[in-house]
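=== RUN LOG ===
request id: a7f3
mode: sequence -> structure
chains: 1
length: 149
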Amino acid sequence: MGNTKAVKIVGIVAMVAGLLMIIAGGVTWGLVSSQLADENITVAEDAAAFAGKTVNGPLDAYYQADIIKHHALEATGGKTYAELDREDPLRATAMNASFLRASLFTSVVAFGVAAFAIGMGLLTILLGWAVTALASVKVSAPATASASA
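=== RESULT ===
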């Protein structure tokens, strides 16, 4: 019975840690979203989705990166940066497109990490709550059967 207090403390610590993960994930999501919005990037009109929308979330960042790839390949005749000759003037176009795509994909990954932190925080809170609740359950000793002959 002496371990009940320690188990409750572990449960409470888990719930606090979960709350901190949710807060950190939310702050990260908000920062990445606001930084993207500050760049005033608009999804191209010919993108597969979110055309004309300001890039400030993971999906519109993904679709803008996708259309940048399409435009770059169109401009270079289907060749990537690595496939173009070093003296080809289109190599700079391919390089810029690759840089922009990598930047947008970095934000997509940051949104994913933030969502993961929020999800793990929620799970940790639930597990902490369960541990705390189980520590409060009174367990009675099983009745012993009397030996009668």
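=== NOTES ===
The chain has a mean pLDDT of 93.
Residues 3-136 form one domain.
=== END ===
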